[in-house]
Amino acid sequence: MNFELSKEHLAIQETARTFATNELLPGVVERDEAGEFSMDLFHKMGDLGLIGLPYPEEVGGQGGDYLGYALAVEEISKVDASMGIAYSVCTSLYGGSIMNSAAPVEKKREVLQDVLSGKCMGSFGLTEPNAGSDAGGCITVAEKDGDSYILNGLKCFNTNGPLAEYTAVYALTEPEKKSKGLSCFVVKKGTPGFTVGKVENKMGIRCAQVSEMILENVRVPAENMITASGDGFKLAMKTLDGGRIGVAAQGLGIAEGAFEIAKEYLKTREQFGKPLYKNQYLAFKMAELAMEIESAKWMLYKAATDKDSGKSYTQSAAKAKYLCTNAAMHVTTEAVQMLGGNGYMKEYHVERMMRDAKITQIYEGTNEIQKLIVSGALFR
């Protein structure tokens, strides 16, 4: 059992950390305030080779692995969780939908290479107003019409939706079979009838663009159905397993970012004639948070390593998602408290991190769903 990162992984970690510090940190408060996403910064991240890290070169990726990708999301999210989730959706959810599908390699390359290079974005269209935790409740339909399918329905909470060039849309080709009749289609931006609905005004991850995506008689070539009819639910579940690793990395990064800010504050802020860390209660609290972060980190790295080694990773991904995102919420809340009044002010970052942390416990399967996954395996 080796707990040391390889030279390649350390290089990825350093590249992402430097990018986050030099490029993302300046202006992160202002972007959050305005709720604006920077495509220029996203393109720069692509230029560094981060987005396509875990996918083979034959489809436009970097030929790396999922652990390297998780390390990159972690470093990005220490500074800017909005960029972290935009990155994760492109790679884990859109990229995972394509790579896990039955599409031929030529089709995968066609609809992946520009996203993996950072030239454009991808998104994941599964969630609907009545199909959240119950993904099988999807009612968007796709009706065969000659050599095309006609899609009708509504997707919601679609991260990257307003900006994405490509969206993996899950729709029923056999509605009578319910979840067993779900399939997946790649829909390109600008296709007639495929439009952006309400853009959400969010508590956290305010820079990430999240919206409804409306499908009204959207004609998609049959070749853009990347599953066999009825295989969409299995594809979505497998893709979400990988997505949970990305969100776990986001949560871990948020927790670590807030922890470092709190640690520095306790070292430099004086009360009653001594630095705050000399208060044993605060020092012990930081020790507890450090152990919580460390435990979550190794669960995340195990999940990514399980995936890279070809092992089943459904359980480890669920555990990592649960532990890392709970750590994000706990650590950021404590960081705000430890900074006192300053913690409530935007310039100290931790209030933003606390707002960003909450959604990590909800999307990619709520943490209650992660308990269902873990407990289901225990008693199978």
Number of strands: 9
Can you give the mean pLDDT? 97
CA radius of gyration is 21 Å
User: Largest sheet at a glance?
Assistant: 4 strands, antiparallel
Query: Which regions have little confidence, pLDDT < 50, spanning 5+ residues?
Result: none
* Strand fraction: 15-25%
**What is the CATH topology of the largest domain?**
Butyryl-CoA Dehydrogenase, subunit A, domain 3
SSE order: HHHHHHEEEEEEEHEEHHHH
Going by CATH, the architecture of the largest domain would be Up-down Bundle
Q: State the helical fraction.
A: 40-55%
The CATH homologous superfamily name of the largest domain equals Butyryl-CoA Dehydrogenase, subunit A, domain 3
Strands of the widest sheet, in order across it, are 2-3-7-6
Structural class: alpha+beta
Look at the structure and give the CATH class of the largest domain.
Mainly Alpha
Tell me the overall shape. globular
Total of DSSP H or I helical runs spanning 4+ residues:
11
Alpha carbon gap, first and last residue: 28 Å
What's the number of structural domains? 3
